[in-house]
């Protein structure tokens, strides 16, 4: 499944049969989800449950407005179990979302197992047990594929890379380690732009990603690059660090290969090649010949408003972005750009773990999923709240611990609320 | 009121341990401390694990500074099963809380079974599965008692009483049962009807029989006078009885309710919600006032009510529902989210009149809380309140972060879903972040 895969389907249900047609397997999965939503249940007097589809005949011709409808999970700030990740894939399928952007490594930890450099993983992970093994990743990617979800790995670099340099072999490739302080948040440290060891390590990381993840896209992150981190390192005296960084990123792009697309955050110094993808957390930019994905912190960041890793109130990105706020966000102007792909809700992991993932993601991501599949046509707005209640009930029934949309009273009497 | 001795001493040497307390509850507190001293490591010989207590000998003499250390949970906006409540009470015991304030009823539902009003048990509940039988109540109360927790019931009136109207024999005493503005209709009891006080008396008699605690919470807040204004009989009654305004009418309700409740149990202490902007009642000296206004407004309230005892539930520190949205899809009225640090920073001893402060309660209103997400709302930030009320001397952020993180781990091992208080790297390197 890729950027251009069709997810169209046609579903028709009458008293005799239900017929589902799709261009691809993935469209079929979307249609199955819709079919499941048509099914209602009723308890009979003898205690059995009857299932039925009201309102037949039903004919639905459906397709998504956008191609990239995703969630970013960060397993580097807190390790997340595969169980949590699989449950996320299930929930995404229930919401017709199709991209899991896996922010798998960061300064905090390196849980991605490198077959050719296992010590990097074993020293970079929080503990040698909190890692993702190659077979586990392969199985997970297949688990997702069968449910119509692409998995895009993000190997953030060259910023946020302290965890790459914790083995004796690579100890000399880190500039401004922990105590120095040139970082957005602890722990500090960025890999060398000068050392051939960095290229060697980067080559293996990219190769491992290509081995384990099937997607045509790999994300390089490239945000929050601290130039002054290298500037504080005497090895960089009299060097143009920005140029060094760009060369590094170009080399990285080369290693990924022409058959793949690279993805970068909008503040990256290097924005890849034609056909690559830029992800915006701030504001949209009509960069020519680049695909675009949005995840504005003012709308789509799921961690806002719930406190910071220092115990402060959530300050930098304001209050919690509610489901209603997400649904009120128009993507009309972004849609005018023919290379606009869609959006992602991002859940950075400083304040998230296995226990809190479902609660933080749902039902807000359901609102995002609706926005990206159907837009928010005026006519739909009136019953959106009610439809969201039903979606949440279905999520609960399927074992997803979604936050409720409203009180039980308002769920029973939506006209009052 | 009675403040009991909860002190204990714990003496640990390699030869043995001695835990001494004057009361059963003090003993329970000591056992918790003992549990916290135990660590686990890989067994020195063979496989498996072993448990040990480092740094013996240890001598602890401990007692809480504030006796009233609680959590309020609203089981009317969303139902919480008996099993969920029992697990919650366990968690409160592990964290050395002393009070569970049970906000039993509200506009949304009345989930408690009453012999006198069986129709409420059918009509004022969301479903047959979402209510507490008498047997359930007994089980929960017993569970709490054994864990050293006082369970204080709250039945709200004259406002927030719409659920009462679902029993036809009570319907008449509730004004505005169907509402007109957005959201749940609010019901306000009619203070001019004798039947109102009959119902209150009958209801509270059963409540007092079920709940042995010396306190009962009668709420008394957020009355919308428009509802009373719309009922002509109330307006007429006020003219006949020279009641000048609705504030005076509220006072009449409060005074009559007090009479009824004190005649049922003269020794029961009445607790009321109070907040600076809406404060317009007079109270008796033995009433306890629970303030939900900001900490800054507390001193104004004390000036007006200098002889009462206080429970602090300042919304700027202790309202746990803030920051996670409201039930219309917007942001909460009390932004931002209260982090563990914000909760810890409720400095009770710096407030005026600390000798009249019984303690504090965090409040979890449940418009957006179901059983599934309850743990995520509480743990471990709630434990910061227990610390702040047991040991109000201020500890450094580093110390609090380290100890709260370790406590969170213990809660996790005991089967609770626990939020992180910081990034995992910071959990493992506290001094690197705090």
What labels describe this entry?
heterodimer, A: 417 residues, alpha/beta, eight-stranded parallel β-sheet, three-stranded antiparallel β-sheet, 13 helices, 32% helix, elongated, B: alpha/beta, 37% helix
Task: Characterise the protein shown here.
The complex is a heterodimer of chains A (417) and B (434). With 417 residues, chain A is of the alpha/beta class. Chain A has helices spanning 25-38, 82-94, 118-124, 134-146, 196-212, 227-231, 241-256, 323-327, 332-335, 357-361, 364-374, 378-397, 408-412; strands at residues 9-13, 18-22, 40-43, 49-52, 58-62, 68-74, 99-105, 150-155, 174-175, 190-191, 217-221, 261-265, 277-280, 291-294, 340-347. In chain A, the strands form 4 sheets. Chain A has an 8-stranded parallel beta sheet with strand order 8-7-6-15-14-13-12-11. In chain A, strand 6 (68-74), helix 2 (82-94) and strand 7 form a beta-alpha-beta unit. The two termini of chain A are 41 Å apart. In chain A, 50% of the residues are buried. Chain B is of the alpha/beta class. The relative contact order of chain B is 0.11. Chain B is built from 17 helices and 15 strands.
């Amino acid at each position: 499944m890729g950027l251009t895969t069709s997810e169209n389907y046609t579903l028709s249900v009458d008293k005799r049969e239900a017929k589902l047609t799709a261009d691809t397997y993935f469209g079929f999965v979307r249609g199955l989800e819709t079919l499941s939503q048509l099914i209602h249940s009723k308890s009979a007097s003898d205690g059995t449950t009857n299932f039925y589809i009201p309102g037949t005949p039903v004919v639905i011709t459906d397709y998504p407005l956008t191609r990239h409808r995703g969630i970013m999970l960060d397993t580097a700030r807190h390790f997340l179990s595969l169980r949590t990740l699989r449950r996320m894939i299930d929930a995404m399928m229930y919401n017709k979302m199709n991209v899991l952007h896996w922010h798998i490594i960061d300064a905090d930890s390196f849980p991605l197992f490198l077959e050719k450099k296992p010590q990097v993983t074993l020293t970079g992970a929080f503990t040698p047990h909190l890692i993702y093994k190659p077979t586990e990743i392969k199985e997970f990617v297949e688990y997702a594929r069968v449910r119509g979800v692409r998995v895009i790995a993000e190997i953030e670099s060259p910023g946020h890379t302290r965890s790459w340099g914790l083995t004796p072999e690579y100890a000399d490739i880190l500039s401004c380690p922990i105590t120095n302080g040139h970082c957005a948040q602890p722990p500090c440290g960025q890999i060398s732009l000068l050392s051939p060891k960095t290229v060697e390590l980067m080559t293996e990381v990219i190769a491992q990603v290509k081995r384990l993840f099937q997607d045509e896209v790999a994300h390089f992150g490239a945000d929050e690059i601290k130039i002054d981190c290298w500037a504080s390192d005497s090895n960089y005296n009299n060097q143009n660090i920005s140029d060094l960084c760009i060369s590094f990123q170009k080399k990285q792009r080369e290693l990924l290969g022409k058959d793949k697309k690279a993805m970068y955050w909008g503040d990256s110094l290097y924005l890849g090649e034609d056909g690559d993808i830029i992800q915006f957390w701030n504001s949209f930019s009509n960069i020519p010949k680049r695909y675009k994905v949005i995840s504005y912190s003012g709308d789509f960041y799921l961690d806002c408003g719930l406190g910071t890793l220092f115990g402060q109130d959530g300050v930098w990105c304001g209050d919690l972005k509610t489901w209603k706020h997400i649904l009120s966000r128009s993507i009309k102007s972004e849609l005018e750009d023919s290379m606009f792909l869609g959006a992602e809700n991002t859940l950075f992991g400083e304040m998230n773990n296995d226990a809190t993932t479902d609660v933080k993601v749902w039902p807000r991501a359901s609102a995002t999923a609706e926005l990206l599949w159907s837009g928010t046509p005026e006519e739909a707005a009136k019953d959106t709240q009610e439809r969201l209640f039903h979606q949440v009930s279905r999520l609960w029934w399927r074992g997803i611990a979604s936050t409720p949309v409203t009180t039980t009273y308002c769920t029973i009497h939506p006209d009052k609320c | 009121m009675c403040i009991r001795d909860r002190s204990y001493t714990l003496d640990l040497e390699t030869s043995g341990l001695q835990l001494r307390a004057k009361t059963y509850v003090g003993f329970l507190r000591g056992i918790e401390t003992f549990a916290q001293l135990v660590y686990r490591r890989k067994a020195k010989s063979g496989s498996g694990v072993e448990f040990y207590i480092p740094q013996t000998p240890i001598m602890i003499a401990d007692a809480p500074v504030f006796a009233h250390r609680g959590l309020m949970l609203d089981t009317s906006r969303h139902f919480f099963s008996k099993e969920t409540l029992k697990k919650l009470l366990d968690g409160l015991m592990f964290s050395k809380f002393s009070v569970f304030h049970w906000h039993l009823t509200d506009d949304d539902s009345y989930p408690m079974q009453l012999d006198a009003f069986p129709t409420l048990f059918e009509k004022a509940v969301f479903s047959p599965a979402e209510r507490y039988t008498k047997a359930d109540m007994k089980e929960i109360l017993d569970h709490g008692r054994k864990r050293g927790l006082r369970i204080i019931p709250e039945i709200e009136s004259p406002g927030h009483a719409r659920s009462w109207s679902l029993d036809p024999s009570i319907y008449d005493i509730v004004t505005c049962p169907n509402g007109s503005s957005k959201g749940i209709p609010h019901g306000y009891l009619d203070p001019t009807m004798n039947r109102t006080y009959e119902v209150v008396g009958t209801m509270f008699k059963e409540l007092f029989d079920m709940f042995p605690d010396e306190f009962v919470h009668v709420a008394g807040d957020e009355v919308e006078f428009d509802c009373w204004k719309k009922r002509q009989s109330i307006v007429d009654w006020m003219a006949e009885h020279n009641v000048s305004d609705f504030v005076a009418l509220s006072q009449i309700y409060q005074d009559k309710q007090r009479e009824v409740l004190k005649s049922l149990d003269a020794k029961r202490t009445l607790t009321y919600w109070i907040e600076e902007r809406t404060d317009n009642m007079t109270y008796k000296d033995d009433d306890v006032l629970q303030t939900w206004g900001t900490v800054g407004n507390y001193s104004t309230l004390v000036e007006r009510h200098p002889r009462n005892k206080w429970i602090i539930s300042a919304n700027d520190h202790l309202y746990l529902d803030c920051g996670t949205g409201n039930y219309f899809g917007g942001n909460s009225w009390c932004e931002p989210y209260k982090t563990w640090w914000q909760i810890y920073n409720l400095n009770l001893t710096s407030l005026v009149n600390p000798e009249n402060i019984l303690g504090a309660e965090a409040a979890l209103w449940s418009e957006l809380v179901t059983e599934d997400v309850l743990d995520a709302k509480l743990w471990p930030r709630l434990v910061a309140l227990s610390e702040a009320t047991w040991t109000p001397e201020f500890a450094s952020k580093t110390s609090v972060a380290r100890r709260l993180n370790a406590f969170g781990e213990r809660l996790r091992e005991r089967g609770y879903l626990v939020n992180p208080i910081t990034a995992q790297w910071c959990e493992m390197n506290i001094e690197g972040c705090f």
